[in-house]
What does this fold into?
Amino acid sequence: MTGPIIRAMTPADVPAAERLSDECFHELDLRMNRPAWPPPEPRSSGGAERWVERTLHFLTTDPGGCWVAEDDTGLLGFATSFVRDTTWCLATYVVRPGLQGRGIGKALLEAAMHHGRGCLHGMLSASADPKALRRYHLAGFELHPQMFLTGVVDRSAIPAIDKVREGSAGDVELMNSLDRRTRGAAHGPDHELLLRTWRLIVSDSSTGSGYAYLGDRNVVILLAASNRRTAARLLWTALADASTDRPVNVVHVTAANQWAVQVGMAARLELHQDGYLALRGVKPPAPYIHDGALL
Ligand SMILES: CC(C)(COP(=O)(O)OP(=O)(O)OC[C@H]1O[C@@H](n2cnc3c(N)ncnc32)[C@H](O)[C@@H]1OP(=O)(O)O)[C@@H](O)C(=O)NCCC(=O)NCCS
It folds into this structure.
């Protein structure tokens, strides 16, 4: 048997990478005994399809950012990353359980980071795996704890909400401006993918501008706003439109986004902590809720 080689990812690798990432994160959930959300379970078929579509998107926009490790037994691990403006972002990074802690991850991360060698800024959403955190720390990232809120929304707490409308492709320029203002880099081509996948709401008035992509169980996929009041208005809209009969989550809330904690508490959701937003050369974005992969 030959040792692992690191090579560029191709579209043919993506289905196996999807299976491997699900296996790794499921194993991690069980190993870390993660708290309340979501109960550890394999990815849904819809989630798997979205994962494949998103990874093929990265291979189109950033083929030089996506790497796999393999030997003659098959895929051992991979890292997918991309560059937007001057920010390098890591989307997914895994090594097969049982082979972790032997240096495969180091080689993969180095290959992916080479793609971002011209970037002043870096961003990724880290799991709580101590091996991942060691790698990110050694790569120069600062770790900012992520909170999440979970529960069934107390509908009597929802305030009257105005100045929020459905969004469309016509809002991309506004969204890219808000991205640059809050996180220092536009999402650019990622908005096409996000628009295809999620519902978009926009608030754009004399008092402020913002947008949010809304999901199902995780009610907010991504949110950016020019001020906290507009951000809170968008989050309340997401909670008001959420399922009434089962718990919802607001994930990826950093300490810089206390406005989101305030809204979640007012809606009588529970507050917990999970993972870290890892940043290099950039302050925690605010008012902002990041997507775990597109950030
Ligand atoms: C994160 C991950 C991709 C890293 O790959 P890997 O092959 O395990 O990484 P490496 O072996 O190159 O590096 C791990 C580092 O952690 C150290 N380490 C090993 N076990 C550790 C532990 N229990 N606690 C802390 N550090 C540990 C290793 O010694 C190594 O550090 P070193 O290079 O200074 O010696 C892999 O562990 C993984 O898939 N984890 C589960 C999924 C995950 O969390 N992915 C990241 C999502 S953000």
User: Anything to note?
Assistant: The first helix runs from residue 14 to 32.
